[in-house]
Design brief:
The chain has about 120 residues and is mostly helical. It folds into two domains: about 1-45, no CATH class; about 45-119. The protein contains three helices and two strands. Bound molecules: zinc ion (ZN) (2 copies).
Amino acid sequence: MKCKAHPTIEAIAHCLVCDSPVCKGCIANGNESAPQCARCVSFNSMAETENAQIIQTEQLKQQEAEEKERISREKEKKQLRLKLGVIVFGLIIIVIQFILVNKPVSFIVPRQHHVDQLA
Ligand SMILES: [Zn+2]
Ligand SMILES: [Zn+2]
C-alpha cells in the first residue's frame, strides 16, 4: 500500500485517527507505535502547536530585542570611542601646534592671524 500523501512511497503504517496509509516521512509525531498523519497531528494539536508557535515567536521577539539592544549598546560604545578618539586627536594636534609655534594656537584666532598676514 502506498502513502496517501506520497503515492510513490510505500506506507508503513496507518494513521490512528483517520486510518490513512502513511509513510515513514509522514508519521508526523515521530512515534511509529502510535502513528498519525501530518494532517491529523496538526488538527489534534493545533492549540498546542499554536501555543508553541506563540512561545517560539515570543522567544524570537525577545532574542531580537536583546540583539537590537546589544547592537545599539555596541554602537554607543563605538561612537563614544570615536568621540574620545576625535578629542584625543584634537588635543594632540593642539599640543603639537603649540609646541611647534610656541604661541597660542593659531586656529583659535584665525581671523586675526589672517588680517595680520594681509597687513
Ligand atoms: Zn490522519
Ligand atoms: Zn508519505
